[in-house]
Amino acid sequence: MAPRANWKGFLKVAELTCPVALYTAASTADRIAFHTLNRETGHRVNRQFIDSDTGKPVEREDQVKGYEIGANDYIVLEPDEVAAAVPESDKTMAVEAFISYDEIDHIYFDKPYYLTPSDRHGQEAFELIREGLRAEKVAALAQTVLFRRVRTLLIRAEDSGLIATTLNFDYGVRSAKDAFSDIPEMKIKGEMLDLAKHIIETKYGTFDPSKYDDRYEEALAELVKAKLEGKAIPARKQQKTDKVVDLMQALRASAGMGKKPAAAKKAKAEPVRRKAS
């Protein structure tokens, strides 16, 4: 079954326009999902919004948005007022600039999408944009209304299509300086730094996503399977954690330079027995 597009519109570069479709590139839809049940009856339970003071259920038509300005003090926003704040969409993904792909810190990356031509009549324009990005080794910065918000996207060439990654807003990215402010400054040098470099060099490799498993998802699948088959659920083995006592010792061990095993002690020489005269 062909995937369903999340969004359809037009990719525009200056006066060049082509119809495109946006598809989810990374999804959690295949994860194991659970329902909340009533233990006594085995029936699914439904959520209800309850008034915090009266304890009575509040029907959907009586629910409104509220912005807290103080303790139990809110500004009420009516549904039509909230709807009026949603930006109008002209279904155009307009490219504003071309930049080096490495120019943006990855901390600003949000969600990846596949961008493809949605109409065969726009195929040539799409391929022209894609090959232009590939030839110049750049990415495009574009803006459009996605899911009720104006979003900025980083668009780059990938195989026969494009990948569009939504970017986090600046106000949503926390300062690294604040996060790292309590880390003391230390100068690492000498043998310690050389050992660290050696460990990195010996373990240098490539990223193969197929080698990394979701162990939690696998454990849930095994749990469900055991329940279905009526098998006993094996107890989890407690993992042993070794305490690092000496940093240099740990580095040497990691680099395969641990202390050599002590040589076996020589047998104690027996006393020389003199012959009787």
TrEMBL record:
Tell me the domain of life. Answer: Bacteria
GO MF terms, alphabetically ordered:
double-stranded DNA binding
Residue intervals of the Ku domain: 55-185
Give the UniProt keywords, A-Z: DNA damage, DNA recombination, DNA repair, DNA-binding
Per the record, the similarity remark reads: Belongs to the prokaryotic Ku family.
* Function summary: With LigD forms a non-homologous end joining (NHEJ) DNA repair enzyme, which repairs dsDNA breaks with reduced fidelity. Binds linear dsDNA with 5'- and 3'- overhangs but not closed circular dsDNA nor ssDNA. Recruits and stimulates the ligase activity of LigD.
Q: Which HAMAP family match?
A: Prokaryotic_Ku (MF_01875)
Task: State how it assembles.
Answer: Homodimer. Interacts with LigD.
Q: What is this protein called?
A: Non-homologous end joining protein Ku
Can you name the source organism? Answer: Phyllobacterium zundukense
